[in-house]
Automatic annotation (TrEMBL):
Protein's name in the database: Xylosidase/arabinosidase
Gene3D superfamilies registered for this protein in UniProt: Glycosidases (3.20.20.80)
Organism expressing this protein natively: Cyclostephanos tholiformis
Region named Disordered: 530-639
Composition bias type Polar residues, residue spans: 530-542, 549-572
Biased composition (Low complexity): 573-622
Length: 639
């Protein structure tokens, strides 16, 4: 049997003889376009059949495991993931409304599945029906991307987040951040001089997230250090047709383009803090516009889980956020999971309070809220500020997180805890009385963060971790490159935070490196260790050249799908196999992108091929995580 006919046979078998056979025909034609010389151009043809790939015949929103519709050939899904949140509710009443954070996620599983078959014609037919699980064994960072200056090309046309609003000649008194970014790798044209003086008499410069090369630089750092990707925060305040919202969309495009150029992943995370109940309807409309108008879920790098695009919505159930309409919140979740047309459906992750399960402290109470939490596909509690050192973390983990994990596993809900390196918002809260001290929660040279990474990686039921945050210098949780030494900080140096604040000399990329090492430990490529695996020695940085957006989105850029044997029951390997990812496309598939030269073997690929893990069981390894142990789940919906 010709393979193209066999593919059609698979489609017909899934759809059934009485169903619309256009899908089977589209699958056959798609294969013919790739194997016949002079066939239809890949990109154009994939777009031409996108209708069939979005079809959900019985309108149940089901993913690829459903046997009552076209299954893997036509189903899509989405998964929400919360990216940004604020400090401990117990300490400050919850996340600050003026600096919320959110992101969205989406994508098309079918294009990825079919393109994998084209990439390897010998792949077994079972690959067509396997799910794309892009959250498995990954640390995903929250990405604010909210910084700007006048003349940066954004519609807002003012300083954003570096200084207080409407400041024209900013000085230190106007500063809203505690860390000063390391600026030596940004293009000079992407920097703006401020009124803040440096020790040598020059003036401090700041970047803008509206500049594509700035965002690209950040994603190149991720690729260099093996960081998988981000949840980009999308705030729902001012979500109408305003300069602020237009700027957010502009930066989301930068994120998408940078992810595609570097092989990183991204998804949208909505933040509903600072809004009332009317935000629920506005959020739906905004998502429809992102899917239809921006094509955001069509990106090859958009995160999917269980065959659906991922969407994260932060702000569900917080006492400090005035979205209290339980019927409206439940309807929003139901809408994304099953009510709306198939191409808008998502794998829905809720950004919830730290004490969501026992409904105390920062969480709203009542049966309706419990039902809302239980109906989520994924749960991401905001943990920033919940502990201040190793002892308080261990106590919090034992009392709450471990029990949260068990609760979610029993119900088939993905649990995504928050990891954070430290906390400081001395300048952001400069007008508070009393003013918070600098370095409120010390990083302790990385030990504070690594203790969390070790604990999370040791729990085989934790398969995804949210890192807060990649670029959050407002609250001092950033892991990207910042000024390492106090002596190099702007004046007054006591008003800023350097990486040597705890008496340890560190390189500017220390927390990028540490996050990459934590990723390796989570995925099983590094043995579990409770001590820092790195030495405090600066390393030479690679030369990274900004790269333009790819001119087309090749189907081969879609992540390779895990086969059913991708996660064997054998133990997780303690060392990384040199052939761990033989079929994975390099993040440098874009021919114009320069490959990072540092740590090439540890860079996390965009997906995990079936051969990613050895099947032999190393005697000293801990058990391999098994996503299959998390049951496939369809939450009950109120009638």
């Amino acid at each position: 049997m010709r393979f193209s006919s066999f593919l059609a046979f698979i489609a017909v078998g899934i759809i059934g003889p009485d169903r619309d056979l256009a899908v089977a025909s589209a699958a056959t034609n798609l294969f013919e376009a790739h194997v016949i010389p002079g066939g239809v151009d890949n990109t154009d043809y994939l777009e031409s059949i996108s209708h069939y790939l979005y079809v959900d015949y019985d309108d149940d929103g089901g993913g690829i495991t459903n046997d009552d519709d076209a299954g893997a050939i036509i189903s899509t899904s989405y998964i929400p993931v919360d990216a940004d949140a604020d400090a401990d509710a117990d300490a400050d009443g919850g996340r600050e409304h003026d600096i919320p954070g959110v992101d969205e996620v989406g994508g098309d599983s079918v294009l990825g599945e079919i393109s994998n078959i084209f990439a390897d014609p010998t792949v077994e037919a079972t690959a067509v029906t396997s799910a794309i699980d892009m959250l498995d064994d990954r640390i995903i960072c929250g990405y604010q991307g909210w910084y700007g200056f006048p003349g940066d090309g954004a519609p807002i046309k003012r300083w954003r987040h570096w200084f207080r609003v409407n400041v024209t000649a900013p000085a230190y008194e106007d500063v809203m951040v505690d860390f000063y970014p390391a600026i030596d790798e940004y293009d000079p044209g992407d920097l703006m001089i401020s009124g803040v003086k440096m020790p040598d008499g020059t003036y401090a410069k700041f970047f803008s997230s509206a500049r594509p090369n700035v965002v690209l630089r950040h994603f190149q750092w991720m690729a260099t250090h093996g960081i998988s990707g981000v949840f980009h925060h999308r705030f729902m305040t001012d979500s109408g047709n305003t300069p602020i919202h237009a700027t957010r969309t502009m930066i989301l495009r930068n994120v998408r383009d940078a992810a595609e150029a570097t092989g990183r992943l991204f998804a949208v995370s909505y933040d509903i803090a600072g809004n009332g109940n009317d935000v629920l309807e506005r959020l739906k409309n905004d998502w429809i516009n992102l899917v239809d108008g921006e094509g955001i879920t069509s990106s090859s790098q958009y995160i999917h889980q269980n065959g659906l695009p991922v969407l994260h919505v932060y702000g569900i159930g917080f006492t400090s956020i005035p979205v209290d309409d339980t019927t409206g919140v439940q309807n929003l979740i139901n809408w994304f999971q099953s009510t709306v047309a198939g191409k808008y459906r998502v794998f829905f992750i809720g950004g919830v309070p730290g004490r969501w399960r026992d409904q105390v402290g920062d969480s709203r109470t009542g049966t309706a809220w419990k039902n809302i939490y239980d109906s989520l596909d994924g749960i991401h509690p905001w943990h920033v500020g919940r502990w201040s050192d190793a002892t308080t973390f261990d106590t919090y983990y034992s009392n709450y997180i471990a029990n949260d994990v068990a609760y979610c596993k029993q119900r088939g809900i993905r649990y995504m805890p928050t990891i954070w390196p430290g906390f400081s918002w001395h300048n952001l809260k400069s007008q508070s009385d009393p003013r918070p001290p600098i370095n409120s929660v010390p990083r302790r040279g990385g030990n504070f963060m690594w203790n969390q990474a070790y604990k999370y990686a040791s729990n085989t039921d934790i398969t995804t971790i949210f890192c807060a945050q990649f670029d959050e210098v407002d609250e001092g949780t950033a892991i990207f490159k910042v000024t390492a030494r106090k002596s190099d900080l702007p004046l007054p140096t006591d008003g800023w935070l350097g990486l040597d604040a705890d008496g340890i000399s560190l390189p500017s990329d220390w927390y990028l490196r540490l996050t990459g090492e934590a990723q390796l430990m989570l995925e099983g490529s590094r043995p579990l260790t409770s001590t820092l695996p790195l030495t405090h020695v600066p390393t030479s940085r690679p030369t990274l050249v900004p790269t333009a957006k790819p001119t087309s989105r090749s189907p081969s850029a879609y992540p390779t799908t895990k086969s059913p044997t991708a996660k064997p029951s054998s133990a997780r390997p303690t060392t990384k196999s040199p052939t761990a990812n033989p079929t994975t496309k390099s993040p440098t598939a874009n021919p114009t992108t320069k490959s990072p030269t540092a740590k090439p073997s540890s860079a996390k690929p965009t997906s995990k091929p079936s051969s990613a893990r050895p099947t032999s069981k190393p005697s000293s390894a801990r058990p391999t995580r098994k996503p299959s142990s998390m049951p496939t789940r369809k939450p009950s919906k109120p009638t």
